């Protein structure tokens, strides 16, 4: 009896396995597969895919400007115009927007309250000041006299050289003539008239005037006496000497010292002022 294996059966099984493998479907691995060809429609879709990204970007920009517009005041409509411009670019028609006011105007009255009174208007004082200015204009604008109108008073500022000589408190002839021409203006005024004497800072020391205080006071008093002599009521007048305490210009120059040497007639026109 032979001990060698029977190879006939084994060869038959091998042949059957090879036949089975041959008829089985064959699939290539993923890395060996050839790329699939795109159709014409797919190619066109890929060409226009960037439009979606562009529209997304414009939408985000539009939202950004809408947020900025929310933090602006109604009268600052620059951001609104930018938003409208972007809307036109996107094909949206312009729409008229109505922005409500941020703060409503406060009512003049509240329910159950009385109407608020209007502020008191200064009617009498401006009328009096205007009348004095008109009277001054009728006199033709006197040489050496300046008029200054402030609320409640009118100041007639007279240069020192017209009324007095240097270091003197005696009225000159030209000064008396000037005060006579000022009388129509002073007669139209109804309030108190304060005559103020002013000097520069150059010291004076004489037996009559030991300082600028005596000089300025004497000049103011001399003008008051002359106005009374011309017919002005004494109760409406008062004399004040300020010496060099209220300069109008710098005393370091000759022009400034000449401007500081003056006599002012301050006419009170405000309501509620009284006589001295």
Which SSEs are present, and which pair or pack?
Layout: H1 7-23, H2 40-47, H3 50-70, H4 78-89, H5 124-138, E1 145-150, E2 153-159, H6 160-163, H7 173-188, E3 193-198, H8 212-229, E4 237-243, H9 254-260, E5 262-268
Molecular structure report:
With 276 residues, the protein is α+β, with helices and mostly antiparallel strands. The chain folds into two domains: 46-97; 124-268, 60s Ribosomal Protein L30, Chain: A, CATH 3.30.1330.60. Helix content is 43%, strand content 12%. The chain is built from nine helices and five strands. It has a five-stranded mixed β-sheet with strand order 1-2-5-3-4. Strand 3, helix 8 (212-229) and strand 4 form a beta-alpha-beta unit. Helix 3 (50-70) runs antiparallel to helix 4 and helix 5 runs antiparallel to helix 7.
Summarize the structure.
With 276 residues, this protein is an alpha+beta fold.
CATH superfamily of the largest domain: OmpA-like domain
Largest sheet: spatial strand order: 1-2-5-3-4
How would you classify the helix and strand content by structural class? alpha+beta
State the distance separating the first and last CA atoms: 168 Å
What is CATH's topology name of the largest domain? Answer: 60s Ribosomal Protein L30, Chain: A
What key attributes describe this structure?
276 residues, 60s Ribosomal Protein L30, Chain: A, five-stranded mixed β-sheet, 9 helices
């Amino acid at each position: 009896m032979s001990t060698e294996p029977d190879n006939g059966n084994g060869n038959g099984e091998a042949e059957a396995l090879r036949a089975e493998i041959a008829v089985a479907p064959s699939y290539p691995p993923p890395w060996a597969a050839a790329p699939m060809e795109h159709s014409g429609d797919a190619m066109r879709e890929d060409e226009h895919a960037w439009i979606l990204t562009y529209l997304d970007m414009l939408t985000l920009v539009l939202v950004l400007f809408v947020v900025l517009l929310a933090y602006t005041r109604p009268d600052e409509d620059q951001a609104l115009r930018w938003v409208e411009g972007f809307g036109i670019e996107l094909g949206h028609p312009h729409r008229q927007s109505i922005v409500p006011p941020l703060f409503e105007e406060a009512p003049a009255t509240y329910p159950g309250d009385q109407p608020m009174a209007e502020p008191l208007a200064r009617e009498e004082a401006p009328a009096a000041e205007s009348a004095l200015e008109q009277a001054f204009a009728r006199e033709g604008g006197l040489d050496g006299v300046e008029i200054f109108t402030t609320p409640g008073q009118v100041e007639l500022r007279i240069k020192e050289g017209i009324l007095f000589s240097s270091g003197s408190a005696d009225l000159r002839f030209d000064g008396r003539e000037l005060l006579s021409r000022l009388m129509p203006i002073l007669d139209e005024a109804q309030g108190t008239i304060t005559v103020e004497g002013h000097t520069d800072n150059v010291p004076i020391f004489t037996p009559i005037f030991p300082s600028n205080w005596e000089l300025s006071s004497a000049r103011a008093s001399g003008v008051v006496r002359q106005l009374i002599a011309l017919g002005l009521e004494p109760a409406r007048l008062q004399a004040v000497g300020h010496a060099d305490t209220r300069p109008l210009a710098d005393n370091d120059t000759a022009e400034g010292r000449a401007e500081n040497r003056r006599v002012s007639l301050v006419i009170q026109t405000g309501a509620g002022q009284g006589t001295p």
